[in-house]
């Protein structure tokens, strides 16, 4: 008997393309590939942990049929949970911060999520945060389950079991660098662990906004003495250390600023006609800012992780661009 999990994985989630990027490869004199996660069900990498967290909760009988899956999300995980919940016969309650893009909120509403907008996403210690409000809601409703992507080990496991092996196979084991934005930490921790188990010399690099504290933690294994607001690059950066972030599999985290990220997104769009997401643009911005330190060889195989699509950030990144992109994409539905 085929399980719903298997159907979702084989048809809608995972096995996303790895595309060679001629423009970036030529510019940086190396071989650059892009892992395009917007081919998933909800057009983002977050569909992977959403499915793993939900299947785990159902298997452990933490939620009964018809119950409510609850999450604190910048939008993408919430959308994945909402779409999967609908398919499996559950409801979704998603808490987003006021910095969430209008496009993501519209998608959540269209998908059927019950959403609440919160002041921030500063972690469980802040009463006004998405995390605290989500946990409180789940605790007060008998058939609700808080998937809690920031502290759920299934977040890491999803990428260890699916994304990492895909990248290894798609590069024929020749990958030398993996570069991804860091938010909850699940992607870089899961992919990083898998890749380093295959070859310890693979460079696993994270990207975060200026002011975020994850890079400091990777280097010193302590929190900085002072915590300041970080640049608003949607989906990445933290002022606390998520439980789903395993620094042991991350070699270094580079910081980029918001304005440079926006500039790179528009530049890439004008050059290629492809709209990239906010954190994807941040990954590209790191190449411009740190290319000398990255020191790529012409024979390297560099994989950039693009977790979602630029259509979710029109209002934040592309409003002053009037050219239509060469490619278009729509949210996958069942």
TrEMBL record:
Coiled coil: none annotated. Residues 9-308 form the Tryptophan synthase beta chain-like PALP domain. Transmembrane segments: none annotated. InterPro entries: Cys_Synth/Cystath_Beta-Synth, TrpB-like_PALP, TrpB-like_PALP_sf. Signal peptide: none annotated. Gene3D superfamilies: 3.40.50.1100. GO terms for biological process: alpha-amino acid metabolic process. Keywords: Pyridoxal phosphate. It comes from the Bacteria. Its cofactor is pyridoxal 5'-phosphate. The keyword Nucleotide-binding does not apply. This is Cysteine synthase family protein. It comes from Sphingobacterium phlebotomi. The lineage of its organism: Bacteria, Pseudomonadati, Bacteroidota, Sphingobacteriia, Sphingobacteriales.
């Amino acid at each position: 008997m085929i399980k719903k999990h298997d159907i979702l994985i084989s048809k809608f989630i995972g096995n996303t393309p790895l595309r060679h990027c001629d423009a970036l490869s030529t510019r940086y004199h190396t071989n650059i590939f892009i892992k395009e996660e917007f081919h998933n069900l909800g057009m983002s990498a977050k569909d992977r942990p959403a499915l793993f967290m939900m299947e785990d909760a159902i298997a452990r009988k933490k939620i009964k049929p018809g119950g409510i899956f609850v999450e604190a999300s910048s939008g993408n995980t919430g959308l994945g949970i909402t779409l999967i919940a609908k398919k499996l016969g559950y409801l979704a309650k998603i808490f987003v911060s006021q910095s969430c893009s209008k496009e993501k909120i519209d998608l959540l509403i269209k998908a059927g999520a019950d959403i609440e907008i919160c002041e921030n996403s500063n972690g469980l210690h802040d009463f006004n945060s998405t995390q605290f409000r989500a946990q409180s809601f789940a605790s007060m409703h008998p058939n609700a389950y808080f998937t809690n992507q920031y502290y759920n080990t299934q977040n890491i496991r999803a990428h260890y079991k699916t994304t990492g092996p895909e990248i290894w196979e798609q590069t024929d084991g020749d990958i030398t660098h993996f570069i991804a934005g860091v938010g909850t930490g699940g992607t870089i921790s899961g992919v990083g662990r898998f890749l380093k188990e295959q070859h310890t010399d693979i460079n696993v690099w994270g990207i975060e906004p200026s002011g975020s504290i994850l890079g400091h933690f990777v280097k010193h294994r302590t929190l900085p003495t002072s915590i300041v607001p970080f640049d608003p690059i949607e989906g990445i950066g933290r002022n606390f250390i998520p439980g789903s972030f395993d620094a042991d599999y991350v070699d270094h985290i580079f910081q980029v600023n918001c304005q440079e990220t926006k500039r790179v997104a528009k530049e890439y769009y004008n050059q290629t006609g492809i709209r990239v997401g906010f954190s994807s643009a941040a990954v590209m911005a790191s190449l411009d800012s740190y290319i000398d330190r990255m020191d790529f060889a012409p024979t390297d195989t560099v994989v950039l992780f693009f977790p979602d699509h630029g259509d979710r950030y029109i209002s934040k990144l592309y409003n002053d661009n009037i050219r239509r992109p060469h490619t278009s994409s729509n949210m996958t539905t069942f």
